[in-house]
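Sequence in, structure out.
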Amino acid sequence: MARKRGAGYRPPAGKGRAPDRVSPVPTTVVSIDMTAIKGRAGVVVGSRVRILGSGLYAGEVALVERLVSGVVPSAVVRTEAGRSRMARTIDLEPAAETVPDGP
């Protein structure tokens, strides 16, 4: 009867043996904006703001519906297109109030 061969696993790295590979630096390094903790003054419920940054709906004008307090202050905003999202208050800037032209 033929004898089965082993699975061929490498033995675990023991003491005194250097690992074969060194873990590379991860490419998903995160930078934390510590100024976001302070929030932005002037953002109140009902105010018009412009969404800054590079995220969803960036550059759009929105209306602040609700403020959420926490470690990083945030606000629930609704864009002029009717879409809603939560954004940090540091990513919102007060928008210039525009008066619609009427007949």
